[in-house]
Amino acid sequence: MTGTPQMIKPLLRLTTILSLSVIGIAHADDSFEPNYDESLIPEYTLPDALTLQDGTAVADVETWKTKRRPELIKLFEEHVYGRAPGKPEAMHFETLDNEPQALDGAATRRQVRIYLTEGTEGPFLDLLMYVPNEGRPVPAFLGLNFYGNHSIAADPNIRLNMNWMRDKGEGVVDNHATDESRGTSASRWPVEMIVKRGYALATMYYGDIDPDTDDDFQNGVHAIFDKQVTGELAEGDPRPTDAWGSIATWAWGLSRSLDYLEEDPDINAARVAVMGHSRLGKTALWAGAEDERFALVISNNSGCGGAALSRRAFGETVWRINTSFPHWFNDKFQEYNNNESALPIDQHELIALIAPRPVYIASAVEDRWADPHGEYLSGYHANPVYQLLGTTGLPGESTELPPVDEPIKTGTIGYHIRTGKHDVTSFDWQQYLDFADLHFNK
Ligand code: GCU
What we know:
alpha/beta; Rossmann fold; nine-stranded mixed β-sheet; 12 helices; about 30% helix; about 15% strand; globular; disordered N terminus; binds alpha-D-glucopyranuronic acid
């Protein structure tokens, strides 16, 4: 094989020259220049949500439910997020705190520990809830948080999370939370507003489920349940390419939270909206797609691997996300780096998997990295499925983005693009509450 090095060199040089002249794809030195120009989006054809893999058209509700929906779930498991185990049999709960006089008597603060195995050793998941004292059982919003339950409100009685966390958060020192981090994410979690509108808020730290770091799936719930997914692996055996990555793990944790909410008599578990921002928006979509008990799904600025169409390769691309966050998706997803058109699915089919249940997709003008137009279009292209199932889908027939700050919230698919940056704001929450009111007949 003496000729090989000489053959590789010119090839490498060629790749460098090509990649320097193209934006939106990987450069040979791993640098990346995102494409933010609509006119430079590659030509693409989306897979048809209403055609089975064997080419048969899906023309009725029955075929959607019994054939296409299960087929799409499997395709997303195999090619994007990975397979997860079911509900652990030994799961049990402990109420650690119940304060009926929270929020000046308007709500009960409840902290519940979800044990995943028979004993009380970890890992366990801590759910924080604020439940209105009036009108029970109440509908709820459920969402994962980035920096611990104690970061969502300044309430000193919220347990300080002791688990590993990314050091990007305020008051996080040596990858652990300090008291300084209490309430630092409060602007994203308007607890009073949610409770006043008659909804409970339930939230959990995503790192309780799986720490957000590329550790070869050694910790979090991977440590206890990974074998159920991978089978026994001998030393050096490759991990199956469809085994759960971290997003699938976090989505699994949301389903375990819902298992608890089903047991809580103060919650109307048939009316739980799952909500998430950014990577946790990707997670909320996958949780909502897989677990049909979620009555409503909200994607806040979820972008690549979430609501944004992968084939547009606008802003963050599949290569970029797999390179920055190799643990988020399954290993198979790597095959689509700079090769999005080979994917057997695209993200409009993730939205379609939520049908006929309501879904709200939110973008922000300055969040170009997440491709607002691609987020909108996945809702638009999910329409045929929503309509087949007898719902409105996304009102308006336009492929163009609606005007900024003018939410579309009267259909089964809601959408807005608001002024401002990648974040969750009170404007976002107002729309989610209105949308939930409409669909939960409040
Ligand atoms: C990065 C990543 C995004 C992700 C975001 C977040 O920007 O590229 O895909 O949504 O982090 O979760 O905050």
